[in-house]
Every structure is written in structure tokens, then in C-alpha cells.
Design brief:
The protein is built from 8 helices and 14 strands. By secondary structure, the protein is α+β, with helices and mostly antiparallel strands. The strands form 3 sheets. Strands 1, 4, 5, 6, 7, 8, 9 and 14 form an 8-stranded mixed sheet that branches. A 4-stranded antiparallel sheet has the order 11-12-10-13. The structure holds (3R)-3-hydroxy-3-methyl-5-(phosphonooxy)pentanoic acid.
């Protein structure tokens, strides 16, 4: 059905509710730099997490006048949040061309995260994907346009992308790729695709323990960071390097080559932060403990011979990546060496997960 047919005839007595739980994800090849309507400058690949989730509930009812505006009430973790509400309103307005019925309904949205508030964990991937999934469920209820799993996921990923680029990847089970790449058939800049079939078993329950080293709000947002790439002198080299790294990562994921995987993950994390440091104006999101922990992880890997690697998102917290079969071997290292460096010993145990789940 054409988007321009997605208009509800009679909205009298319309009332309903949808609820989705959607996870965050950790990119191994990073998306950093965008153009146009939130298209990526390079393809990225990520692991979908299990425990770092946003639960979003959308109650919808009829509006009596359709004035082109978005009519929304929003509660974040039980409280009003004018900043988030405005962001959601702007987002819903921006996706109107894809879901033209959106101004015919009044929305009451409630959202909460399973990971602690102000833990320094960015929630845009989980929250924007949860909201996009709810909107798609509403479309499916009224128009029956997204019956097949593939159509549903594709549209949810596209709508999620328009909220936050990385959110496009959270729609999928296990591993996802977003961005057109000559190396992957069916890949697109518009939406992400599932990569499960291209991934060796060892990566299907990979661990990601997140060590909270600062709870401060980021000094430079991801949105501002992406736009600083437009004047970054290393930008073009970066985009081409990301494509090259993607080729090697795909091979490592297929082969189950954890060492190659780990070395690419670390290079990508440090490249992301290097790009921030050479932006104009320059900025640093790592904290002294970030560097200290990186050194500890590398030294431990060298002396133990165990495959433990780190990654970073756009923030100071360390993500520790390791395969499931060594989890018992590294408990002491984590408890004695890494956990004490965290704010209030705060860490989150996470792992590759099954993707979003519809609750209602
Ligand atoms: O989705 P955004 O616009 O918040 O950008 C996120 C970018 C990184 O998290 C740093 C990397 C990535 O690919 O997730």
C-alpha cells in the first residue's frame, strides 16, 4: 500500500495500546558521520544486546481535529520530561510522510529503561527502536500492511533510523548491518538487515560487560559529533577505512576468528575517539580511568592468553567483549581489577540477544 493511502477513515471510538521491549546495541564497525535524511557515510555492524532495554507503551485514541500537528503526552520513568517529549514530537512529525495517519491520533507514551538512569549508557538506540516498533504495530492493526516479518522489520528499522541512526540496527536478533556495502547482498542505507546467517556460533552469545566509569552527561552529543565529521580533515580516510575494516570483520565473524574480531573491535573503538580528538573544536570523551582500564585489559590478555577485548561507544565507559566459554575464567579479573574502578562498583552484564519483543 502506498504511504498516501495510510489514512484512517472513521476514527470514532478508536482506542488501543501497544507495548514493545527493545534492546540497545553495540557497534563493532562504528557509524560516525552522516548525510541527508540520516543516511550513514559508511556501513556499520552491531551486536544486539539482551539486558539493556527500553520498554515503551503507546496508548492511542481518536483526535477530533486533524490539524497536521502531533498530539502526544509523554512520561519517562513515570515522570514528565519536556525535553524528551519535544524530541518525540519532532520525531513523529518527521516520519509523517511514512505514516500519514499519525496526526489523526492522540498518543500517551510511557517509556522506561531497564538499565539505571544516568548510568552513562546512551538509550537512543533502544528508545527510538521501541517507539518505531509501536508505530509499526499500530499501522499493522489499522491497515494490515506489515503482515510479513520482513516487511514489518524493514519498516520498523527505517522509522527507527529516522529517530537515531544506530536504532535501525536494534530491530534485529543477534547481529545487524546498516548501510549499503558491496560485500553484503541486500544491504541498504535506508534500513538495517539481520546478519545472523553470516555469523559463527561463538559470536551468538558473545558477552558485553559494561563498566560505568562516569555518570556525567556527555559534553558533546552524538548529533553534534556527527556534524563535526563534516569538517574533520580525516573524514574521507575514515569512511574508506571503515569499509575496509567491515570486509575483514565479516570474514572474522563468519570464520569464528575471535582474535581478528577483537583486534578490529579495539581499533574501531579507538578510531571513533581519535576522530573526536581531531575534530574542530576538539573534544575528549574518555576519562583517565578509561585509558587505565584499556591498559589493564590488554595486559591481562597478554599474560592470561584469554580472548578478552574492549570496545567503547561515544562515551567513557568500557565494554568488555569475550566469548561465553571463558566466562568463569575471568570472574576474578573482573571482580578484583575492573569492578573497583567503576562508579559505585556499577557494571552491567550484557550479551548478544534475541532482539525486540512485543509485550502487548
Ligand atoms: O545513532 P546515533 O546518531 O546516536 O549515533 C551513534 C553512533 C555510535 O554509537 C558512536 C556508533 C554506532 O554505530 O552505534
Amino acid at each position: 500500500m502506498e504511504n498516501n493511502q495510510l489514512r484512517i477513515g472513521d476514527t470514532t471510538n478508536i482506542n488501543g495500546k501497544v507495548i514493545w521491549n527493545s534492546p540497545s546495541n553495540l557497534a563493532i564497525i562504528k557509524y560516525w558521520g552522516k548525510y541527508g535524511q540520516q543516511f550513514p557515510k559508511n556501513p556499520s555492524i552491531s551486536m544486539t544486546l539482551t539486558n539493556s532495554l527500553t520498554k515503551t507503551e503507546v496508548l492511542y485514541s481518536a483526535r477530533s481535529v486533524y490539524d497536521g500537528n502531533i498530539d502526544v503526552d509523554f512520561l519517562f520513568e513515570g515522570k514528565e520530561n519536556p525535553k524528551f517529549k519535544e524530541r518525540i514530537k519532532q520525531y513523529l512529525l518527521s516520519i509523517k510522510e511514512y505514516v500519514p495517519f499519525i496526526d489523526q491520533l492522540h498518543f500517551q507514551i510511557k517509556s522506561e529503561n531497564t538499565f539505571p538512569h544516568s548510568s552513562g549508557i546512551a538509550s537512543s538506540a533502544s528508545s527510538m527502536s521501541a517507539l518505531a516498533l509501536c508505530i509499526c504495530s499500530i499501522e499493522e492493526k489499522f491497515f494490515k500492511t506489515l503482515k510479513s516479518n520482513e516487511d514489518f522489520e524493514r519498516k520498523a528499522s527505517l522509522l527507527a533510523r529516522l529517530g537515531s541512526g544506530s536504532a535501525s540496527r536494534s530491530i534485529f536478533n543477534s547481529w545487524a548491518l546498516w548501510g549499503k556495502s558491496g560485500d553484503v547482498q541486500g544491504s541498504s542505507d535506508e534500513y538495517a538487515i539481520e546478519m545472523n546467517d553470516h555469523v559463527h556460533e561463538i559470536f551468538k552469545n558473545l558477552h558485553d560487560d559494561i563498566f560505568i566509569l562516569s555518570k556525567n552527561e556527555k559534553s558533546v552529543s552524538s548529533t553534534a559529533g556527527h556534524s563535526l565529521m563534516e569538517t574533520n580533515p580525516y573524514a574521507e580516510v575514515r569512511y574508506s577505512e571503515a569499509r575496509r575494516q567491515l570486509f575483514y570483520l565479516l570474514d572474522a565473524l563468519r570464520q569464528g576468528d575471535i582474535e581478528r574480531f577483537g583486534s578490529i573491535a579495539e581499533q574501531e573503538a579507538l578510531s571513533l575517539h581519535a576522530l573526536m580528538m581531531v575534530s574542530n573544536p576538539s573534544y575528549i570523551l574518555m576519562e583517565p580511568n578509561t585509558v587505565k582500564m584499556i591498559r589493564k585489559i590488554r595486559a591481562y590478555r597478554k599474560e592470561s592468553g584469554l580472548p578478552v577485548y574492549f570496545s567503547l561507544d561515544a562515551g567513557p565507559n568500557i565494554h568488555l567483549l569475550y566469548p561465553d566459554h571463558i566466562k568463569n575464567d575471568i570472574i576474578d579479573f573482573i571482580d578484583q581489577e575492573l569492578k573497583p574502578m567503576c562508579i559505585n562498583q556499577m557494571m552491567i552484564n550484557d550479551q548478544v540477544g534475541p532482539g525486540p519483543i512485543q509485550i502487548e
